[in-house]
Write a structure and sequence with these properties.
about 260 residues, mainly alpha, single chain, about 0% strand
Length: about 260
């Protein structure tokens, strides 16, 4: 715990690398395109009004405004989670020269990965706000609980990014495996469908509730629509967070120094 906490504190005191670096990564990626940074919110527009609109049209009994907002929040949170997780698996290999230089802590690269995904998240929020204007079930009073859920989400993303980044440095195949796993997880996460359709006691309900991404998503989305977060979700997230923090600290303390040799 001490080594991870020490490096994390040092990274927080030197945010220039991971904040400015992640923003520079984003700018460089889109600088030669005609639309530039406007390409970032385009996927969420496609999912909300394209995929969400199509699936919503297949369900005439569903309130379209609420459904589009449901899809928008779901996709935005899922994209944040999946991007961080996938990037973590190749994180150290893509910054190999910086690691060999020895002037950066590994936590710098983890925070850089997370802040880059947060830029995507924040730049997509305006479109989400537009979609939520048509949601009659929106509960502004639930915003505080939703932000708390987002904080829990970010803590877990950091902890598990530590684990996945170490595993990715040791096993190059992890990125391919996680790419397939994320695709499967998308299908059993209620992004473009309602969680109530996967009832308890069914195979679908069991798979959905065994999926950690479902619980992380619901902790953020459910309060926004005045829905009660399941007791199972609260219990799941408490255990998941504690396990993630202690496992990340133990793994980082033992294996962080081996990363340069693995690369």
């Amino acid at each position: 715990m001490s080594l991870l906490l020490s490096h994390f504190n040092q990274s927080l005191r030197r945010p220039d690398h991971w904040i400015y670096g992640s923003w520079l990564d984003t700018i460089v990626k889109y600088r030669k395109t005609s639309l530039g940074l406007l390409w970032i919110p385009i996927p969420i527009a496609v999912y909300i009004w394209g995929v969400g609109g199509f699936i919503g049209a297949l369900q005439p009994a569903v309130d379209q405004g609420n459904f589009l907002a449901h899809v928008g929040v779901g996709f935005l949170i899922f994209r944040l989670m999946s991007t961080v997780i996938l990037d973590a698996t190749t994180l150290y290999a893509s910054h190999q020269s910086y690691i060999y230089d020895g002037h950066r802590n590994l936590t710098d690269f983890i925070l850089r990965c997370m802040s880059r995904s947060m830029f995507y998240f924040l730049l997509s929020l305006p479109l989400l706000f537009v979609a939520m204007l048509g949601a009659s079930d929106l509960e502004i009073a639930g915003l505080g609980w939703s932000l708390l859920g987002l904080a829990v989400l970010l803590v877990n993303l950091f902890s598990y990014s530590v684990l996945f980044s170490l595993l990715g440095a040791r096993f190059a195949d992890l990125n391919e495996f996680m790419g397939s796993a994320i695709l499967a997880a998308f299908l059993i996460t209620p992004v473009v469908w309602y969680a109530r359709l996967a009832q308890e006691g069914t195979t679908q309900g069991l798979l959905m509730r065994a999926n950690p991404l479902y619980h992380l998503l619901e902790a953020v989305r459910a309060p926004l629509f005045g829905e009660q977060v399941e007791a199972l979700t609260v219990q799941y997230l408490v255990v998941m967070t504690l396990v993630g923090v202690f496992a990340a600290a133990a793994a980082y303390g033992r294996f962080a120094r081996r990363v340069p040799t693995w690369l």
